[in-house]
Amino acid sequence: MAGSHGGSPKSWLAVIVILIGFTVGGVALCIGPSWALFWAGAGIIAVGGVIALVVDIFSDVIIDAPRVPLDNGN
Question: Other CB atoms closer than 10 Å to residue 68's CB: what's the count?
């Protein structure tokens, strides 16, 4: 994926799992609150965090060359 700011699929897996956890927790707070469902969402977030640590998500940064703005004569 050179030339973009996207991460690897394993990093996106961690991000998607964490987003699912936030969604479950947010829905749980809106429908009741349903504390069991809220804590299930928190558990999903924790699993996503473990996945992020295992795949070393913070080292998965793709950096492009610096962008130079066009000089349009102004």
Answer: 6
